[in-house]
Amino acid sequence: MSFTVKNNIQWVGKIDWELRKFHGDEYSTHRGSSYNSYLIREEKTALIDTVWTPFAKEYVENLKKTVDLSTIDYVVACHGENDHSGALPELMRQIPGTPIYCTKNGEKILKGLYHEDWNFKIVKTSDTLDLGNGRTLTFVEAPMLHWPDSMFAYLSGDEVLFSNDAFGQHYASEFMFNDRVDQAELFQECMKYYANILTPFSPLVIKKIKEILGFNLPLDMICTSHGIIWRDSPAQIVEKYLEWADSYQENQITILYDTMWDSTRIMAEQIAGGIRQADDDVTVKLFNLAKTDKNDAVTEIFKSKAILLGSSTINNGILVHVASLLEEIKGLKFKKKSAGAFGSYGWSGEAVKIMLERLADSGFSTPDQGLRLTWAPDDANMAACRDYGKRFVQNL
């Protein structure tokens, strides 16, 4: 499958309808994904990125149906991660010596992954590659968005930004343009992608976007490496990134918990009731972490101004699904969010203290000492939970 993106730009990637896990088992892809590769044919022919390794042979065979491989003058590797570079070994066996344009870190990563000394051409920000017919690729380094080697490529003449992982989403669709897909699904997947992958690099996101905007380049289209292509008002996703990168939050409190014999679940529900009594405008959402996709949970945390984390105490510690989430959010480096903790216990009760300490270590403000109760909540304890919910929201 291939199709025209604009003028002499063709999409030659792969739609992966069956993908449900990405980065090993680290990222859920409920709607599949795509690996977007682009062919630009002017006086010179350039191929931008490839696809993931399992589709390498299929990719190269399909590419042969679109273009004589020997006529490819340049390969541009905007990012060396396996889902973008996985077909390079299969491709380069057939066109050895073809120059590969990448950053210095890109060369290091590609050599580390494939142990091949290809014809690397190192580029940095503002370097250009003339394709003829008034078309020039200008390279923009984007380190840590989201790997050290990441870069963008801007095609003048067509006013297209090849953004690699930035502005993308894991979303398979037969309609590969943003104006042709369900907008609610699209932006849900965009936010999930940002929350789980780019949140730690938010200061760099703002800096890089402002740098690119400072070039005053006309922008007609953003061609991402995953999901759909932004051709209708492409600046809208740039504006969203600036919003999301700026310590994003909505008027939402998310309660996330795990429970052994339902006592902590009951606490969660009663705390939610207290929050609603104190503020009927705030959105309150509850998630049992043992039954909730962790990337969906992270997305809800990203949206929230505050979270409440609940766990029973087990072996002087916390339940494993809560511990896993705490490890996840530590690396995401959320900013300007508050948190509390609660849980039931029988004879020791360390869980609340452990959760608060880890939340504070992860950058959350923890304005109180949390709430812990013994055994199953009775009427008085459930009232205490509601009171805690009221105090928590009033102190934000």
Q: Mean of the pLDDT scores?
A: 97
Could you describe the largest sheet, including whether it forms a barrel? 7 strands, mixed
Radius of gyration: 24 Å
Number of helices: 12
- The CATH class assignment of the largest domain is Alpha Beta
Number of domains: 2
Low-pLDDT residue spans: none
Quote the beta fraction: 15-25%
In the CATH hierarchy, the architecture of the largest domain is 4-Layer Sandwich
Superfamily (CATH H level) name of the largest domain: Ribonuclease Z/Hydroxyacylglutathione hydrolase-like
The CATH topology annotation of the largest domain reads as Metallo-beta-lactamase, Chain A
Determine the structural class based on helices, strands and strand pairing: alpha/beta
Helix content: 25-40%
Architecture overview:
There is one protein chain. This protein folds into two domains: about 5-245, Ribonuclease Z/Hydroxyacylglutathione hydrolase-like (Metallo-beta-lactamase, Chain A); about 255-390, Rossmann fold (3-Layer(aba) Sandwich). Helix 6 (about 200-215) runs antiparallel to helix 7. It is of the alpha/beta class. The protein has helices spanning about 55-65, 80-85, 90-95, 105-115, 185-200, 200-215, 235-245, 265-280, 295-305, 320-330, 350-360, 380-395, and strands spanning about 5, 10, 15, 20, 25-30, 35, 40, 45-50, 75, 100, 120, 130, 135-140, 150-155, 160-165, 220-225, 250-260, 285-290, 305-310, 315, 315-320, 340-345, 370-375. The model has no long low-confidence stretch (mean pLDDT about 95). A seven-stranded mixed β-sheet has the order 1-2-7-8-9-10-11. Strands 12-13-14-15-16 form a five-stranded mixed β-sheet, with no helix packed on it. The protein is built from twelve helices and 23 strands.
